[in-house]
Amino acid sequence: MNEVIALLKNHRSIRKYKDSPIPEQHLEQIILAGQAASTSSNIQAYSVIAVKDSERKRKLAKLAGNQQQIVESPVFLIWCADLNKVRLAARLHEDVELRQNVELFLLGTIDATLAAQNAAIAAESLGYGIVYIGGIRNNPKEITELLELPELVYPVFGMCVGVPDQEPDLRPRLPLAAVYHQETYKQSGLEDEIIAYDSITREYYATRKGGGKGGEQETRWSREMLRRFNSDRLRDHLHDFLVGQGFKLK
What we know:
The protein is an alpha+beta fold. Helix content is 43%, strand content 12%.
């Protein structure tokens, strides 16, 4: 195992930050590392907005479900799928609308995700901690207005970045056999792997430090999946919002 793999395997979500600013040159290098990520056909269909203003962070935190880590982090990055710049580039040559479909929407979303993960690794290599914030999709219309996002741009997720002020335990992942398949998908034995993982995650949630579900003896991964997919966290409002932003999902 080399240093890069060790860094990746040591990733933890950081939700408490020291009152230490991030130098602009560090932030630029983090974003440049994001730009070095793979991008489909070089379309680079994403943008990132850095929010440092305290009042704007407070508004974003409220819209994202009252997540205090947004306020406490020195920089909150909002990663956006961005087909606006793709359309602008095409119109330099011909005044046409983009031929859109679900594939083009996915390309922007995937591009933003790949760039963000590169940036996350870069930030951690510099000694910072990060946590992704999917809660910005709770109220995407209000966040779009707050950030002045144009048509064909939408916020995929946020990312808090800052100097860690906590040392949470590493969260155990699914067994390799539940994730890694050779040649074809193997359904056989998958339920057993999930049951084994439940035992590991039940102990983790009951004893972990760093906040969250510590002390909840009956919390386990499969129960969390049941809660997740039987709640309003699935954000049914996103389809209408995306259509309103000019995306054609067909």
